[in-house]
């Protein structure tokens, strides 16, 4: 968790946030997925970000994936998971209840150029990806992706 975030405080005001992201699958039969390493938090994660006012979930998922990975050609697939978590944001001085919707996505490109928030990336097979991500919600999303990949051309 971000060091500026902490446990949910039942006595503090709360806001809700909506985000969208992808499990980005690379080319080839290995079905490797792209993970980004968050520099400040020293953790692996999936590309995702906030849905802007008036934006669709699908549009936000593609936009955030392109922005965070630097890969300009991303093809969106089906929705695969919705996860939520809550935390206290010291910066906002508010509790945050965050819902993130994930889609499968594909790219033919291999060389990512992550934005400066991230210091590296890895194309990982699904089992290794599950080992690298620190949060159960991310493992849930990767598990849903793995199940959906068999029926996705």
Structure keywords:
3-stranded antiparallel beta sheet, 5-stranded mixed beta sheet, Nucleoside Triphosphate Pyrophosphohydrolase, single chain, about 40% strand, about 150 residues, alpha+beta
Structural overview:
This protein is of the alpha+beta class and 153 residues long. The protein has a single domain (5-149), classed as Nucleoside Triphosphate Pyrophosphohydrolase (Alpha-Beta Complex), CATH 3.90.79. The protein has three helices and eight strands; from the N terminus they run βββββαβββαα. Strands 1-6-7-2-5 form a five-stranded mixed beta sheet. Strands 4-3-8 form a three-stranded antiparallel beta sheet. Helix 2 (126-132) runs antiparallel to helix 3 (136-149). It is globular, with a radius of gyration of 15 Å.
Quick take:
With 153 residues, the protein is of the alpha+beta class.
Reading the helices and strands in chain order gives EEEEEHEEEHH
Sheet bearing the most strands, described?
Answer: 5 strands, mixed
- Overall average residue pLDDT: 93
Tell me the name of the CATH class. Alpha Beta
Number of strands: 8
Sheet-strand content, in percent, reads 35-45%
Q: Taking strands numbered 1, 2, ... along the chain, how are they ordered across the largest sheet?
A: 1-6-7-2-5
Fourth-level CATH superfamily:
Nucleoside Triphosphate Pyrophosphohydrolase
Number of helices: 3
CATH architecture: Alpha-Beta Complex
Number of domains: 1
Poorly predicted runs of 5 or more residues = none
Structural class: alpha+beta
Query: Helicity, in percent?
Result: 10-25%
User: What is the alpha-carbon Rg in Å?
Assistant: 15 Å
